[in-house]
Amino acid sequence: MGAIFEDVEIGQEIPRLVKGPITTAHIVRWSAAMENWHRIHFDWHYATQHDGLPDVLVNGSWKQHVMIQLVTDWAGETGWAWKIAFRFRGMNLPGETLTAWGRVTGKEERGRFGVVDLEIGLRNEQGAEGTPGTARVVLPRRGGPPVPYPFDPAVLAG
Asked: Record's superkingdom (predicted)?
């Protein structure tokens, strides 16, 4: 199912998404799937000796995927992850366990639907926030229709 607009409260946390511990094998598989052959993701010697990094790095595109999964899992099949934005502010390394989190910061009724604003992020087990961001989610109202797929923002007008 998914979240219902009337059940959402400002300040409410959405269910977290935990990934890890991340291994070098996870990073290499993601790099291969994305055809991202930058050596900082798989060549330890290059990453540490040439670029001066502490280790190979978790891919930014993987972190992006986790953030989107967090929001879409919460929105469910009847909601829509409308907008998402974040910044890569920190490196993540093999061995870390990463937790995607979100908190409701605003909500408004828009016609037959509700729009919910979220603060989101991705933290390692030490609590270091490496990927802060925001999201905007369209949710169905209790007793109302699911958000149409594909989503057209024009449905919010009426």
From this structure: Bacteria
The helix (run of H) or strand (run of E) holding residue 98 is: strand 98-110
What average pLDDT does range 125-142 have in this prediction?
97
Residues 18 and 66 in one domain: yes
H helix or E strand, kind and range, residue 91? none
Count of beta carbons in the 10 Å neighbourhood of residue 1: 9
- Which DSSP state fits 27? H
Nearest-angstrom CA–CA distance, 79 and 61: 24
Alpha-helix residue ranges (DSSP H) falling in the chain: 24-34, 44-45, 60-75
Q: Which domain holds residue 47?
A: 23-57
Model confidence, pTM: 0.94
Token pair, residue 41, equals 């993701």
Residues 123 and 110 in one domain: yes
pLDDT bin (cut points 50, 70, 90) of residue 155 is confident
Tokens found for residue 40 = 């900082």
81, 158, 140, 67: CA torsion to nearest 10: 10
Q: Exposure of 105 by Cβ count < 10 A (0-12 exposed, 13-18 middle, 19+ buried)?
A: middle
119 and 148 in one domain?
yes
